[in-house]
Sequence to fold (105 residues):
Amino acid sequence: MPLIILEEAIQLAYENLESKDFSEMIRELRNAIGLKLYKAAELIGIAPARLKNLETGYFRIMPKEIELNVIAQLYDIEVGTVKSKAQEHVKQRLRAKKVRLNEKL
Fold:
């Protein structure tokens, strides 16, 4: 990929961070910088399956502090942004679970 196109993709990914949820944000940033999932997982220090779950939103428990810190460092974004987006995701998943449980009753 030519450098100019890569720079544009990265810039676009960073410009729209506020409108993205946690999973979408980290997936798009990884793709924008051209990292394969397995390589990003290796750099973060987690299994590729774990990163896939984080990127698809398939998690209900808050990621570990070290995971969030390394993700922020890898993608050069504020740790606070990463943490708040992950927390919001977990809250939404818990709310959805409560709604499903109430519907079953």
User: Anything to note?
Assistant: The mean pLDDT is 87. The longest helix spans residues 79-104. The chain is about 75% helix and 0% strand. The two ends are 54 Å apart (CA to CA).
